[in-house]
Amino acid sequence: MKLAKVLTIAGSDSGGGAGIQADLKTFQELNVFGMSAITAVTAQNTVGVHGVFPVSTEALEAQMDAIGTDLAPQAVKTGMLYDAERIQLTVAKIRQYRWNLVVVDPVMIAKGGQTLLELAAIRAVVEELLPISTLVTPNLPEAEFLTGMKIRNRKDWREAAIRLHEMGARYVLIKGGHADEDVEGTSATEAVKSTESTDAQEFVNKRFSADTEDDGERMYTNQVVDLLYDGVCFVEYSGPRIHTKHTHGTGCTLSAAITAELAKGAGVREAVGTAKAFIQAALEHAPQLGAGHGPTLHAAYRLHGPAPAAGAAR
Ligand SMILES: Nc1ncnc2c1ncn2[C@@H]1O[C@H](COP(=O)(O)OP(=O)(O)OP(=O)(O)O)[C@@H](O)[C@H]1O
Ligand SMILES: Cc1ncc(COP(=O)(O)O)c(N)n1
Q1: pLDDT tens, 150-170?
Q2: What confidence tens digit (pLDDT) does each residue in 77-126 have?
């Protein structure tokens, strides 16, 4: 059988747990041929992000052209795109080369709170990236940023998915890793307050004014649930919450696994189920590295098999 080719357009994580490194490890584990276009280099370890160095737009364009003119990928994933200029360039190349299976992980803020996407670029994510995406995979704070609404309960969660679908994403997966946090104090609202860009403040504040009443069902605590919406149906993927601080790169790994499965021909529902089992196993067997938030074990799904009860859709 022909080997499926997959491209990740994302930032490099020197610590190896997230970004390009997590994506390529995941692609390898799921038997697809991984390729990369690097948007920014981060100096990062389990303790935090110590530096962010954007790659020139010329260098980013040259990487995407090199792949587009020779190694046509079956599916593409975007991760940390850093700013509006790099988002616009990425969208232009996706259109030029007709890459039409596109998984967008709208990476904005690292687990440690450091900004990985300039706030002024949120407008470009909404207006340019979402309309060309097959699937968008925000975590809860990112879903709040993109929709402008607070997500306090399961009713809000579904409402946010509907809004993201209306904004142009064909499928929406809102991940629940952050559902055990204090929703009032999410990094989304805190980050808006601290930004120096008035354009970003105006844009995000306007979006946050569309608030909803807190009258829905409560969030989940013992389970981690990811919610998929296709414009008609909701599907929940549920697995036991693993109580660990080693969750660095879980979002990158999940979306990379989905991309790999789509490239091999799976449908979105099936691909998300496999990816959820992949990340569950990777978290359960996290190698306990570093002094801070360590990485997961990307080889765990192959070495130990899918974790029981992971990836169950209902
Ligand atoms: N403690 C946990 N136990 C089990 N599954 C988890 C846990 N934390 C996250 N997950 C799973 O990991 C995936 C990523 O979820 P999360 O909401 O943490 O995304 P994220 O914040 O984008 O990740 P990151 O920013 O670390 O890359 C989801 O499939 C989620 O269900
Ligand atoms: C280059 C890069 N891309 C993505 C993330 C998000 O991962 P996390 O939220 O676990 O820090 C990251 N830290 N670094």
Answers
A1: 999 999 999 999 999 999 999
A2: 999 999 999 999 999 999 999 999 999 999 998 877 788 888 789 999 99
279: helix, strand or coil: helix
Q: Which of 117, 146, 175 to mutate to test the pocket of ligand 1 (most atoms within 8 A of CB)?
A: 175
- Average pLDDT over the chain reads 89
Catalytic residue list contains 252: yes
Identify whether the C-beta of residue 78 lies closer than 8 Å to the C-beta of residue 129: yes
Ordered by start, the domain boundaries in the chain are 5-313
Give 195's contacts (C-beta < 8 A, 6+ positions apart): 119, 201
Helices (H), the chain: 19-29, 57-68, 84-96, 122-124, 140-147, 154-166, 187-194, 198-208, 250-263, 268-284, 300-304
Distance CA 306, CA 272 (A): 13
pTM: predicted TM-score of the whole model, two decimal places: 0.90
pLDDT tens profile 196-242: 445 544 544 444 444 444 456 666 678 999 999 999 999 999 999 99
- Please state whether 290 falls in left (phi above 0), alpha (psi between -120 and 50) or beta: left
The best mutation among 219, 250, 285 to test binding of ligand 1, ranked by most ligand atoms within 8 Å of the C-beta, falls on: 250
- How many residues belong to the chain? 314
- Catalytic residue check, 251: yes
Q: Is 9 helix (H, G, I), strand (E, B) or coil?
A: strand
Overall fold of domain 5-313: UDP-N-acetylmuramoyl-L-alanine:D-glutamate ligase (3.40.1190)
Distance (Å, whole) CA 43 – CA 12: 8
Report the relative pairing of strands 135-136 and 171-174 from DSSP bridges. Answer: parallel
> What's the angle, vertex CA 245, arms to CA 243 and CA 248, rounded to 5?
120
Task: Look at residue 313 and tell me whether its pLDDT is greater than 70.
Answer: no
Distance CA 312, CA 193 (A): 38
